[in-house]
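Narrative summary of target 7.
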Amino acid sequence: MKNLIRFFAITIAIVISNNTFAYDFQTDGIYYNIASWTDNIVAVTSGNNNYSGSVVIPSNVTYNGVNYSVTSIGDAAFSYCTSLTSVTIPNSVTSIGYGVFYDCSALYSVVIGNSVTSIGDSTFSDCTSLTSVTIGNSVTTIGGCAFRDCTSLTSINIPNSVTSIGDHAFLGCTSLTSVTIPNSVTSIGYEAFSGCI
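Modeled conformation, tokenized:
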């Protein structure tokens, strides 16, 4: 288990080093990569400055007179943003990458829009202040280590759309006392709730 967690941490570090400052434009403090020039689609990414405070991701953004749809959040986009406190993800976003909020130690509230279909591996790992997560009703999978060591998380309501919960998904969530798991869930991974009280 320790080797798996170490692997996730090393992989996130590699993703961060490869993504740092790789963005196409910035508007209102949010950095974007253009995912499709022909369809005018962008992904939220990391940039020169760490995100902080409350971030509300827009459904659409205009740059150089072109209107883009915001449909994804790239790998590790908000990772290690230790002053980030809350994030609202709009219904336009369908995809959240790997380790997106890894080690955002001040993050306490996240609202995930109703079009996101999966919560990726290590998405919220080590978000030790996270107390409130609203999971949209299109999410079908919760990835491995997705909420690992979210030590302030006391309850989680998993929507009826979810069918699988990955290995170590809630490992080390020591304050977790209430979990609602719907009948739609057919697979719960290895030690998904290990270390939870």
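Residues 2-19 form the longest helix (18 residues).
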